């Protein structure tokens, strides 16, 4: 039996681009739906860029139409052979002009698409149905993806996940589909059962520590995620203990238990 400890944690949301907060549309404790706009950045500069890009597309379209429908180049009177050569050269020039106009139009459309994408990124949307548990931004505040604190924290209580870190000596003993059990500190009579839904394909240096005995024995850990059933009442931030039953091996036969770091999240 592998034993680990942890805490609950919601999903953190950040803006994809830097900017100044213009509007906040939700508050803590509010229920939100997937794709609902939570907050918006100031959009004036990007909206101007979109208008400039739209004008560039219209100009490129007109230039493309001129190359398609413009007048033929005049052909000077000369011998039939000379006329044939001049017509051929004129056709090549027009074909080149059309290709240039088409390329300019495609470039202008790409710039417009980029500016519209940036405009869309000024709106922070909820990725799921859930509850806002924390809002850390205010109107007028500068934000961005590089800031350590998230703009919003949201939870979906229809499912609860536990993220655990298995020490390297036990890393090969866990796999997806393996049953697990979580017990909340201070409420050991309530047991939450679940199953491992993902296991990292690598080990990493240990970063989570809970001051448990023997925690410094292993320096690398493997990350796993456990999905719990009927855990809507499990408080966010509450320390939990995780129990995993690995496949039979020498340590199980001798009754040896090892410590594991973990935290629950939504």
Structure, explained:
It is a single chain. This protein is an alpha+beta fold. The chain is built from 3 helices and 17 strands. It has helices at 44-69, 80-121, 250-254, and strands spanning 2-6, 8-9, 11-13, 19-24, 31-32, 37-41, 123-125, 130-135, 142-143, 152-155, 160-167, 179-184, 187-199, 204-205, 220-228, 240-244, 259-265. The strands form 3 sheets. It has a 7-stranded mixed β-barrel. A 4-stranded antiparallel beta sheet has the order 3-10-8-5, with no helix packed on it. Strands 7-6-4-9 form a 4-stranded antiparallel beta sheet. A hairpin with a 2-residue loop joins strand 12 and strand 13 (187-199). Helix 1 runs antiparallel to helix 2. The longest helix has 42 residues, at 80-121. The chain is elongated and about 105 Å long.
Q: What is the topology?
A:
Layout: E1 2-6, E2 8-9, E3 11-13, E4 19-24, E5 31-32, E6 37-41, H1 44-69, H2 80-121, E7 123-125, E8 130-135, E9 142-143, E10 152-155, E11 160-167, E12 179-184, E13 187-199, E14 204-205, E15 220-228, E16 240-244, H3 250-254, E17 259-265
Parallel strand pairs: 1-17, 2-17
Antiparallel strand pairs: 1-16, 3-10, 4-6, 4-9, 5-8, 6-7, 8-10, 11-15, 11-17, 12-13, 12-16, 13-15, 14-15
Helix pairs in contact: 1-2
pLDDT average, as an integer?
81
Please report the total strand number as a whole number.
Answer: 17
Low-confidence stretches: 249-259
Major beta sheet summary: 7 strands, mixed, barrel
Order of helices and strands: EEEEEEHHEEEEEEEEEEHE
Category from helices, strands and their pairing: alpha+beta
- Please state how the strands of the largest beta sheet are arranged side by side: 1-16-12-13-15-11-17
Overall geometry: elongated
How many distinct helices? 3
Rg result: 31 Å
Distance between the termini: 25 Å
Helicity level: 25-40%
Task: Please indicate the percent range of residues in DSSP E strands (runs of 2 or more).
Answer: 25-35%
């Amino acid at each position: 039996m592998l034993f680990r400890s942890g805490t609950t944690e919601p999903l953190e949301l950040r803006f994809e681009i830097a900017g100044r907060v213009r509007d906040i549309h939700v508050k803590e404790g509010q229920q939100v739906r997937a794709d609902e706009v939570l907050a918006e950045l100031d959009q004036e500069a990007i909206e101007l860029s979109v208008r400039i890009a739209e004008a560039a597309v219209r100009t490129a379209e007109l230039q493309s139409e001129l190359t398609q429908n413009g007048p033929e180049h005049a052909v000077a009177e000369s011998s039939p052979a000379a006329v044939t050569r001049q017509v051929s050269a004129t056709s090549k020039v027009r074909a080149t002009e059309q290709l240039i106009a088409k390329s300019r139009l495609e470039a202008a459309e790409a710039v417009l698409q980029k500016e519209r994408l940036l405009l869309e990124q000024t709106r922070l949307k909820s990725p799921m149905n859930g509850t806002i548990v924390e809002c850390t931004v205010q109107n007028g505040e500068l934000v961005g993806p590089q800031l350590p604190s998230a703009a919003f924290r949201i939870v979906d209580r229809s499912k609860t996940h536990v993220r655990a870190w298995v020490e390297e000596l036990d890393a090969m003993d866990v796999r997806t589909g393996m049953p697990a059990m979580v017990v909340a500190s201070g409420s050991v009579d309530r047991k939450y059962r679940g199953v491992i839904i993902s296991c990292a394909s690598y080990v990493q240096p240990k970063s989570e520590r809970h001051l448990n005995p023997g925690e410094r024995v292993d320096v690398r850990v493997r990350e796993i995620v456990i999905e719990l059933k009927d855990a809507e009442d499990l408080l966010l931030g509450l320390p939990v203990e995780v129990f995993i039953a690995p496949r039979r091996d020498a340590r199980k036969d001798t009754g040896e238990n090892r410590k594991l770091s973990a935290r629950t999240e939504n």
